[in-house]
Fold this sequence. Notes:
This protein is of the alpha+beta class. 24% of the residues lie in helices and 45% in strands. It has two helices and eleven strands; from the N terminus they run ααβββββββββββ. The protein has helices at 2-28, 41-54, and strands at 61-69, 72-79, 86-87, 91-106, 109-111, 114-117, 120-122, 125-127, 130-134, 139-142, 148-165. Strands 1, 2, 4, 9, 10 and 11 form a six-stranded antiparallel beta sheet that branches. A three-stranded antiparallel beta sheet has the order 3-7-6, with no helix packed on it.
Amino acid sequence: MARAFTIGATSLLLAVSSGIAAASAQTSRAEPADPSGFSSGADVQVQLRQMLAEMKPEQGFMWRPLVRDGATVAAIEIWKKPGRPAVHPAEAEYAIVLEGSGTLVSGGTLADSKVSNANLVEGSRIEGGATRPLGPGDVLLIPAGVPHWFGITGDRLVLLGIKLPGAK
């Protein structure tokens, strides 16, 4: 009987201590990392000011990622000079105008197109596109495969550009 009591007490002690250890392990585990990318408004302004300070006087464009998840990227784009009309065959592009002013021409047909790389086809002009003025707070979506061009009407046009691979 004493032997049965000892075995029973030992089993109970092991069960209780296992439960305490498990509970302790559950409460002492680190919180999972936040899977979302985040950049505060202050972070955005710091990066923008750094980029402007780094741009050379003759430089017309600068792009730098702000947050990313694999191939999905949100980046600050600074345009001081217009680029070439372009098409991203497999990427949609959202953009929010952060500062400055410009013009968006989108749609129509890209003339004199030339493949620059798998994600970019450039041309000399857009024929038959729609023209819209751009200013702070404007939001735009350019679907994959749609020609587009940004004109600059002031000192610069600053965008938060978001590329979405595979979106059509």
